[in-house]
Amino acid sequence: MALQTTNPTTTESWRKLQEHFEEIKNVHVKDFFKQDEGRAEKFTLKQGGYYYDYSKNRITDTTIELLLELANELGLSEAIEQYFEGAHINKTEDRAVLHTALRASEDAEVYVDGVNVVPEVYEVRGKIKEFSAKVIGGELKGYTGKAFTDVVNIGIGGSDLGPAMVVEALQYYKNQLNVHFVSNVDGDHVHETIAKLDPETTLFVIVSKTFTTQETISNATTIKNWFLKHGTQEDVAKHFVAVSTNLEQVDAFGIAPENVFPMWDWVGGRFSLWSAVGLSISLAVGYDNFDAMLEGAMEMDTHFETTPFEDNVPVILGLLTVWYNNFFGAESEAIIPYTQYLSRFSAYLQQGIMESNGKGVDRAGNPVDYQTGTIIWGEPGTNSQHAFFQLIHQGTKLIPTDFIGYITPLHGDTDHHNKLMANFFAQTEALLNGKTKEQVIAEFEAKGVAKETYEPLVNFKVFTGNRPTTTILGKKLSPKSLGNLIALYEHRIFIQGFVWNIFSYDQWGVELGKQLASGILGDINSEDISEHDNSTVNLLKIFKGVK
Ligand SMILES: O=P(O)(O)OC[C@H]1O[C@H](O)[C@H](O)[C@@H](O)[C@@H]1O
């Protein structure tokens, strides 16, 4: 069963949305608030310890009604069923998309091609649990009998970003193990990392779904060679484990079969941190915390699968992206967490969202004639306020922004936390209301500034406001609440790809560069340079020192 292939722009609800957009496109959200005292309450959803206030968006009741009408017209309910039931919605790779099965409850049944995969999932989870406990507890030892002090995750893309983001995010819950990440094929990355390590006390986790990724295999080989300068071939089994679907290649690399943590082709790389790809997470914070993160995700899954669309957080937020992307012409979205722990969150979501929905061919195989995936970016607040917020406040581009913050600070420093959160609230308020010419003049006059002095400055100090934000306010950053938040964004990806009539779960766009790189590596390593455009030939000559 494949997802339906309607061009969304040909639907009746899209036409109505277009008309509605023309009516409200110039209305200031300030005015919507004036007209409706209950607006904040009405446009706030509550789920899994989070409040989602989307009232500061450029929407009315009609906008939401029409967006939901669009979802219904396109058959979203059936699509969600297909997603959770393991239909091959990743059609170009003929695969199911079941990261949700990785966090399903033990008694759930999720069938992939007629086989219930939940028992296998729990078998691997059991293995992760046992292994993590032994490493953390010092029971498993290195080749000289010492307990492990360091763990290195060797992987790239989905085999790096998810675990790296979560290990950073859950730092507060960490144990004594130092966890490092090596991803880039840049030798300086791997050499800087190993320079700090003691081979006797370091565990290496090679993570690659395919086990053919050039970066990961190169880094793993370099590290193994470095290790073999200290330990023996036999010792490799004590220090290297692998996470992969490609058991043959793992074996060829010399990893002992008992050191392999399997994953499945129905888990996309960018959705894989819930699988054994998250082994480094479980090592860093312990299996119970890993499990709690999965539980948080499962709560979001249940919410998404069972909640009526008007109260369904991923549905509403996913459709808002469509609203801005396709009607307002917004090209990007910023994600700004007001917690330093989430400093890798937008980098992680860049892969999740842009690799999924950066597609220009529809599900029927034809080029689309409307906009699809948004550009995702962001850094933690308050740092970003002192860097790029100027453009969000006064630039010419519309940038819908998610503000993510928590009520309780983990270290209990309320002085800092109150300052942080004052900024969090102040920014969304400023982006909503802006500052009018009259307000600017009144401020000058209150300070006694002369008219001829302030007049030339007034326009520069005006803020139009009407810049949309969504506030995601959680109780506390914990493994569970983090799992919940990540799963929210995963489901938003599904909603958007579904509406845009594209395949969100393949990534053919990363192949061409890989192919060309392997040819160019041949050029670099040989005397001659094969055929390329002039610019590339010139650059290769400079690089090879023959020009
Ligand atoms: O886990 P691997 O097979 O090594 O893949 C690592 C990454 O590389 C690919 O190029 C894909 O674009 C990513 O989706 C994937 O996460």
TrEMBL record:
An example Gene Ontology CC term for this record: cytosol
Catalytic residues as annotated in Swiss-Prot or TrEMBL: E355 (proton donor), H386, K514
Top EC class for this record: isomerase
InterPro entries: G6P_Isomerase, G6P_Isomerase_C, Phosphoglucose_isomerase_CS, SIS_dom_sf, SIS_PGI_1, SIS_PGI_2
Kinase as UniProt keyword: no
Compartment annotation: Cytoplasm
Main location: cytoplasm
SUPFAM superfamilies for this protein: SIS domain
Homology family: Belongs to the GPI family.
The protein's name in its UniProt record: Glucose-6-phosphate isomerase
Top-level taxonomy: Bacteria, Pseudomonadati, Bacteroidota, Flavobacteriia, Flavobacteriales
